[in-house]
Amino acid sequence: MCKLGWWKEGSWDVRAYAAGHPRFPNDSTGRQLYDAGEFEAHRALGHEAAAALIRQSDLGHEARTIG
């Protein structure tokens, strides 16, 4: 299991959301009804994390050579 965090080099929209929501991204998962801004912040953070993992792995190399 891993827990996402955000970093200062992340996208401006994730940083902006985090600035106004100090518990982000560690807010409770018990409340599943997110508003549009909260949903987008979590989606963007997940996208950034997955992209960083792919870039740092062999999968990123394979994707570049195939495509």
Kindly list the characteristics that best describe this protein.
67 residues, mainly alpha, globular
Topology (SSEs and partners):
Layout: H1 12-20, H2 36-55, H3 58-66
Helix pairs in contact: 1-2
Unreliable segments of 5+ consecutive residues: none
- Give the total of domains: 1
Q: How large, in whole angstroms, is the Cα Rg?
A: 14 Å
SS content category: mainly alpha
The assembly state of the depicted protein chains is: single chain
Give helix % range.
Answer: 55-70%
Coarse shape: globular
Number of helices: 3
Distance between the termini: 31 Å
User: What sequence of helices (H) and strands (E) makes up the elements?
Assistant: HHH
User: Beta-sheet strand percentage?
Assistant: under 5%
Number of strands: 0
Question: In a few lines, what is going on in this structure?
Answer:
The protein has 67 residues and is mainly α. It has helices at 12-20, 36-55, 58-66.
Describe the structure in your own words.
The protein has helices spanning 12-20, 36-55, 58-66. The mean pLDDT is 78. The chain has one domain (12-66). The protein has 67 residues and is mainly α. The chain starts with 11 loop residues before the first helix and ends with a helix.
